[in-house]
Structure formats: structure tokens, C-alpha cells
Amino acid sequence: MNESKPIVVKETSEIIYGIAPGIRFATVLDGHGGSSDLTYEQLLEWKPGHGVLWVHVERDDHSCREWLATSSGLDAMITEALLAEESRPRIESFDDALMVVLRAVNHNDRESPEDLIPVHIWVDQDRIISLRDTNQTVMALRQIRESLVGGHGPRNVGTLFARITAQLVQHLEPLVDEIEEDIDELDESIADTPRADARRTLSEIRRHATKLRRWLAPQREAMYRLQNEDPSWLGQHEKIQLREVTDRLLRYMESLDTVRDRATILHDDLTSLISEQINRNSYRLTAVAAVILPPTLVTGMFGQNLGGLWGGQHEWGFTIGVGIEILMMPVVYFLLKRAKWI
Fold it and tell me: In 12, 26, 121, 305, which residue has its Cα 20 to 30 A from 90's Cα atom?
């Protein structure tokens, strides 16, 4: 039987994307931390003996679907699973291979970072195929590609898969930190002087935390299941790394749970502060009304157009009446104060 001849590719430090419609890049690991990029024609000629292959494709592109169905060598059922719209994080085992769906941060400026995007991954002992949609940007994968170009990247399929998983989870940390900083800032502002937009800010923080946790919960379950898988290409070091990734993911979830609990407490505190402020203002208005009530009563009585009203014909009647009303206000205030009504 003839042995597979290795594909000879000119190594370059330039990172090239889009070698064909629907295929972002294809690269073969050299086993020393570097890789060699393939053209589309070389990708079609690739055989397992040529080295570990990493292909990154656009899941929603018709050309990608055609390549997976006709040239990838994958079973039709696996191809259908990789292209499925179902994007809940999960792990599926196929003999010595795994199909993995994880959620990643979308660095597309037009999208919200909390709307985590699905990354579908097929991994066996000879290759990794990663898929994401066309208009999505996954910086975690790009950084791994850059490390391969720089010669300090993964050296085999196990380390590449562990690195991909670790990078996807690590990029969640800035999102969690930002939410924690927002809740800290809001907590301090409420403790000092509640801002006018405090309720809206609090609602946004709770919404972001809930949206992010919605995807991290199934991702944690997927990572737990991954620890129970034992493919031949996954070494002991990579298994330890995956456990650390799972622990980091669990810490993120605990942080988000803490944020949600703090948001609930802050909501109660804010409601109490607003209620106290309303009561205080009502109390002040009531006190003012009570002080001016007697003068108002006197003014109303003298406003009756009836005969016999005192001072109606007196030269100083109006001045005396105003003076009496002014003197009544401190007297009423003193009486209310003594009665501890104000």
C-alpha cells in the first residue's frame, strides 16, 4: 500500500482568510507550534497522514455545506448535525471523535456581546473542523491562528482542541467583569445619592446578566460531560486543562448569580429610598398646609360678601388682618411642634 505523501506548502507569516467561498482557512499543524496554510486545492488533496488539519468554515454558506457533504469525508448524519440550527451547547460522542457546540463572544461591533454565538466543532484524531456563521467574528479562534503563524501554537489535535475551548471561555471574562463593575458603580451611587436613571441602569444590568447566564448554564453541563469523555487523542495534560476551563466557567456563573442577587437587593433598596423620598416630600407638604390652614380659614371668612364683618370700614382693617394672619402661622407651628406632629 502506498504511503500518503505530505503536502508541501510555502510557509508564510501572512495570515490569509477566505481561501474559497465558505471556507475561511485550512492549515496543517507542523507538530512544533507552527502550521502551514493550504489552498483549496491542497485541502481537497489532504489525507490523515499529511498532519493534523484545522479547517474553519462559515456554517451558513452554501459552498461550506457542499464541501462538508462531498469533500470532508464525514458521515451524512454528522454533517447534518454540524449544520443544524440547534445551537444549545452540548457534546456528542462518535466513536473516537467528538462533535461539540459551544457559545462564544461575538466581536462584531453591530451585535451585543451578551448575545453569544454558536461555534460548532468536529474533532477526531486527525483534524478539527470549526464552524461559525458568516457575519460573526470570533477573536478567540483568530488568536489561536495568530499563535500558530508565530510558531508558538498547539502541536497536536488534543492541545488544539483544548486551546480552542479555553480561549472561547476565557473571552467571557471581560463581559463578566464589566457587569460586576457596573453593579459596583451602581451600588456606590445608590449609597451616596440615587441617580435619576438608577432603575433603568439596574434593569439593564439584570438583563445582561440573565442573558449571559442563559448560555453559560448549558455550556457548563457540556464541559462536565466533556470531562467524562476519553478519546485517544486527548492527553492527560489536556484533560487537566479542560477541568480548569470548567472551573473557570463555574466561577463566571457564580459571579453572575452574585450580580443577580445584588441587583435584587439594590432594587429593594432603591424602592425603599424612593418610597422614603416620597413620604418625606408628602410630610413636608402636609406640614406647610397645616401651618397655613388657619390663615387661609380667616381669609376665607373675611372673603364672604356679608354685612357685619369687623374692620370692613376701618382705615387699617386690611393691615391689621394681614398682621393677625402672619402671627397665627408661628403660633400654629409652635402648637404642632409641641404636639410632635411635625
Answer: 26
The separation between CA 88 and the C-alpha centre of its own chain, rounded to angstroms, equals 16
Domains of the chain: 1-153 (3.30.460.20)
Residues paired with residue 48 on neighbouring β-strands, in sequence order = none
**pTM (two decimals):** 0.76
Note the pLDDT tens digit of each residue in 81-114.
Answer: 899 887 789 999 998 999 999 999 888 766 676 7
Look at strands 53-58 and 127-132 and give their pairing. Answer: parallel
- Neighbouring CB atoms inside 10 A of 105's CB total 24
Secondary-structure percent of the chain, ordered helix, strand, coil, rounded to 5: 55, 15, 30
Q: How far apart are CA 118 and CA 103, in angstroms?
A: 5
Residue (of 89, 85, 114, 112) closest to 99 by Cα position: 89
**How many angstroms separate the CA atoms of 242 and 15, rounded?**
28
